[in-house]
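We store sequence with structure; for instance:
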Amino acid sequence: MNRLKKHRKKSVSDIIFLTFCTALLILFFVVFMYPIAYVVVSSISTPSMRDGLSLMPNSISFEGYKAILQDKTIIRGFLNSLLYTSVGTVVSLSVTVLTGYTLSRDEFKSKNFITVLFVITLYFNGGMIPTYLVVKKLGLLNSMWSLILPSCISVYNIFLTKAHFANKIPKSLYDAAQMDGCGHWRFLLKVALPMSTSFLMVIALFFAVSYWNSYFNSMIYITDLEKLPLANFLNNILIKNQTTLESGVFSSNIDEISAQRKQLIDYSLIVFSSLPVMLMFAISKKHIQKGDITGKSKL
């Protein structure tokens, strides 16, 4: 039967449909990849005005990357982002797993009430000023925790985790473990988590990308320049045009470097700041392919 399916001739309508889909996918690929390719090529071109949107570099030059690596402020921001992203991902994933697992248990009597409270936060929140006052009263201003604790919970990810534990981990498995004297903590650590590696990698990737790209909270809560993440420096360099890498500090005067060289540094900084995210996707690729975040059971 399988051989018959393989050798079945495609009809004219099938060929037309597949050709259309293939052409559409190629078009989407070009549309999305062309800007990325242009930025990468521009980051290694000589600091001169490039003609149009050509993907051919004038000549290879890593001057932009050298300027970035020699700037202590950018390197400090990069290291800060690594720290905030690592700690924030661990904290957020821990809270999400514990909350999702608890809400997935039928014996937890208050799960419906707490779920309703979580749903309310999807539509209403305290706002920026009350949140700032809470962070200030807790003494978290100008610290790493001001960037992590207020945003460590994602209700969407909690609901995904809850659905995963409820549908992917058979209840009979917990009943059997309970008969052997296995409690919730041991079942979660020894059974549920090892069975959910791919799913948790996907959730961790969501959190990591969110922390890495976040810059608004640090604009509000961080006052010390040395504690700012890389996203803030990227925002000031590319959007506000207030930084020269040669001085290593914020400046409103950008006449010290030519427009061509600044453009080269801008492109290099975009690629430099995107490398960790690309690396995270590359590492998590096989887990993303295996991880089912829909929570639908295949049993």
Summary: Residues 66-290 form a domain with the MetI-like fold fold (CATH 1.10.3720.10).
